[in-house]
C-alpha cells in the first residue's frame, strides 16, 4: 500500500524516518578507509604512562623517527655557518659610539665625554680653605693636656685657655685615656697662623660634660650635669653546659665572670656545678640619662644548686661574706725575712748551748744582724719585750686562735697593742738571749700547740656584729630585691 507521495506505509521497509529521508551512503575506497583508520590512532601518546603497552611503543617509534629525521636534514656540525658583520667604525662615528657606551673601569673603560679646559678657565693661585673644620682628639696616657691640643692644631694661647678652663672644673688627671674630644676650628686670616678654637666638648666625668665656646675674643665654659641611675644590674640564668660560657653569653664581662667563679669556689666545688643549677650575679651599674652605661664591681655572687643555695656578698673590707654575716678566710704565711735560709728545722734537736735534745718549737732562719722582719699576715702585737732565752721577743695574734712568735731580735719596730698589716716591719734580727749568732727564731702556735711554720696554711672565721651586721643585712636585702635584667 502506498501513500500519495509514493511511500510504502505497510507491508514493506519504511524509507522515511521521523519526517527525514534516509539516503544510503556510498561504499568507501581503500585509501579513504586507511586515512580514517590513521586518524583514529594517537601517534604521540604520553610516554610517561602505560610504559610497555602497544600505544607506548608506537609513541616511542614516532619519537625516534622524528629525531632521526631532524638529524638527517640538519647541516654538518663541523662546518661553520657563514654570516655578515658590520665594518668597524672610525672617525666621528666611533667617537659618538664610545661616548654612549658603558665599559667597566676594571677593564680600562674610558668611555664618556670629557670637556677640556678652554680659554675661559682661569687657574686658582691657591685653593680656598673651608670656613670651619671639625676635628677629634683622643686623650692618651702621659703628656700634657695643652700639648695634646696644640698637636691637634690649636694655637698656644687657645690651648692654654682651654686647659685652664677645663682644669677649673675637674682635675685633668681624672680624664680617662681614650676619651674623645670633638672640637670645631674656625677661619684663620692666613695659613701662617693656627685656626682659632670655636667650640670644644669633653666628657669630663660620667656625670659631667664640659663645653667650651668662643664668645667675642675669649672662651667660655659651660657645665652640664648628667643624671645618673645607680641601680645595680642583676643577671640570672641556667648554668647549662658551661658556667663560664653561660655567664658570658648573658653579657657578663670576662673579669666579673672570673671574680664570680673565684668567690663561689671558696664555698662550693666548681666541679660539682651541674647544668641544672642557676647562677645569680648583682653588678654595680651606672646608667646616664644620655644612654651610656658603665659596669663596676661584682656585689653579689649566688648559686642555686638544688637544695643547697650559696649567697655571698662583698663587704666594705673586700671580704666575701655569707648572707648570715660570716666569712671564712684562708691563706698562707709568708716568710718574715727575705732571702731566708733555714738553719734549724722544726722538731726534736740537740740544743747547741744546753747540750741535750729537746723539742724545737719553731725554725731558725740565719740572717745578717739588723735584717728587717715583716709580719707574715695581718695581726695585733700581743707582747713586745724581753722573754728569757728568747731575748728580745714579739708575740702576735692573727685571729682564729693563731699566734706567731719572733725571738732573738736586736730591736723592735712595734709596740704592744699595735695593729700591723701583712708585710709591715715589726722588728730587726739579732742575737739576744740564748743564741750562737745572728738569726731569727720563728714559731707558729695554733690552738695552743706549736706547728711547723714552713708551708703553714690557716683558715679563720670572721663574723660581723652590731651596727656592721645591721648594715650588712640591709645591703643583702637591697641586693636581693633587684629585679633580674631591670
UniProtKB/TrEMBL annotation:
Ranges of residues in domain M23ase beta-sheet core: 358-453
The keyword Heme appears for this protein: no
Keywords for the protein's UniProt record, in alphabetical order: Hydrolase, Metal-binding, Metalloprotease, Protease, Zinc
Protein name: Peptidoglycan DD-metalloendopeptidase family protein
Cell compartments where the protein resides: Cell envelope
Cofactor requirements of the protein: Zn(2+)
Csd3-like second N-terminal domain sequence ranges: 233-346
Entry annotated with the keyword Phosphoprotein: no
Amino acid at each position: 500500500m502506498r501513500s500519495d507521495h509514493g511511500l510504502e506505509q505497510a507491508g514493506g521497509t519504511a524509507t522515511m524516518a521521523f519526517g527525514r529521508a534516509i539516503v544510503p551512503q556510498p561504499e568507501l575506497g581503500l585509501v579513504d578507509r586507511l586515512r580514517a583508520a590513521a586518524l583514529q590512532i594517537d601517534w604521540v601518546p604520553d610516554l610517561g604512562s602505560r610504559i610497555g603497552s602497544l600505544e607506548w611503543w608506537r609513541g616511542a617509534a614516532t619519537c625516534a623517527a622524528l629525531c632521526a629525521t631532524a638529524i638527517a636534514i640538519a647541516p654538518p656540525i663541523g662546518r661553520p655557518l657563514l654570516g655578515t658583520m658590520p665594518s668597524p667604525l672610525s672617525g666621528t662615528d666611533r667617537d659618538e659610539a664610545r661616548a654612549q657606551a658603558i665599559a667597566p673601569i676594571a677593564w680600562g673603560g674610558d668611555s664618556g665625554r670629557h670637556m677640556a679646559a678652554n680659554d675661559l678657565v682661569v687657574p686658582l693661585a691657591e685653593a680656598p680653605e673651608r670656613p670651619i673644620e671639625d676635628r677629634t682628639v683622643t686623650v692618651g696616657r702621659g703628656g700634657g693636656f695643652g700639648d695634646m691640643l696644640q698637636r691637634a692644631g690649636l694655637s698656644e694661647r687657645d690651648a692654654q685657655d682651654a686647659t685652664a678652663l677645663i682644669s677649673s672644673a675637674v682635675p685633668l688627671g681624672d680624664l680617662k685615656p681614650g676619651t674623645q674630644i670633638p672640637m670645631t676650628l674656625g677661619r684663620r686670616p692666613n695659613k701662617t697662623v693656627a685656626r682659632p678654637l670655636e667650640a670644644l666638648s669633653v666628657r669630663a666625668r660620667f656625670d659631667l660634660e664640659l663645653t667650651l665656646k668662643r664668645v667675642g675674643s675669649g672662651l667660655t665654659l659651660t657645665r652640664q650635669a648628667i643624671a645618673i641611675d645607680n641601680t645595680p644590674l642583676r643577671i640570672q640564668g641556667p648554668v647549662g653546659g658551661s658556667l663560664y660560657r653561660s655567664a658570658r653569653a648573658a653579657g657578663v664581662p670576662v673579669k666579673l665572670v672570673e671574680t664570680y667563679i673565684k668567690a663561689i669556689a671558696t664555698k662550693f666545688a666548681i666541679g660539682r656545678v651541674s647544668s641544672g643549677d642557676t647562677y645569680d650575679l648583682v653588678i654595680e651599674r651606672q646608667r646616664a640619662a644620655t644612654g651610656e652605661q658603665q659596669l663596676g664591681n661584682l656585689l653579689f655572687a649566688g648559686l642555686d644548686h638544688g637544695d643547697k643555695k650559696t649567697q655571698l656578698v662583698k663587704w666594705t673590707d673586700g671580704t666575701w661574706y655569707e648572707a648570715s654575716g660570716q666569712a671564712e678566710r684562708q691563706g698562707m704565711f709568708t716568710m718574715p725575712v727575705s732571702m731566708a735560709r733555714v738553719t734549724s728545722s722544726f722538731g726534736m734537736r740537740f740544743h747547741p748551748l744546753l747540750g741535750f735534745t729537746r723539742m724545737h718549737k719553731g725554725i731558725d732562719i740565719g740572717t745578717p744582724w739588723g735584717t728587717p722582719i715583716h709580719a707574715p699576715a695581718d695581726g695585733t702585737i700581743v707582747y713586745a719585750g724581753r722573754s728569757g732565752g728568747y731575748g728580745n721577743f714579739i708575740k702576735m695574734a692573727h685571729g682564729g686562735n693563731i699566734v706567731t712568735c719572733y725571738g732573738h731580735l736586736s730591736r723592735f719596730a712595734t709596740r704592744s697593742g699595735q695593729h700591723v698589716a701583712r708585710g709591715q716591719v715589726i722588728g730587726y734580727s739579732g742575737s739576744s738571749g740564748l743564741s750562737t749568732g745572728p738569726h731569727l727564731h720563728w714559731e707558729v702556735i695554733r690552738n695552743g700547740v706549736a706547728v711547723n711554720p714552713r708551708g703553714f696554711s690557716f683558715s679563720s672565721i670572721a663574723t660581723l656584729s652590731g651596727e656592721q651586721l645591721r648594715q650588712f643585712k640591709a645591703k643583702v636585702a637591697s641586693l636581693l630585691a633587684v629585679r633580674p635584667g631591670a
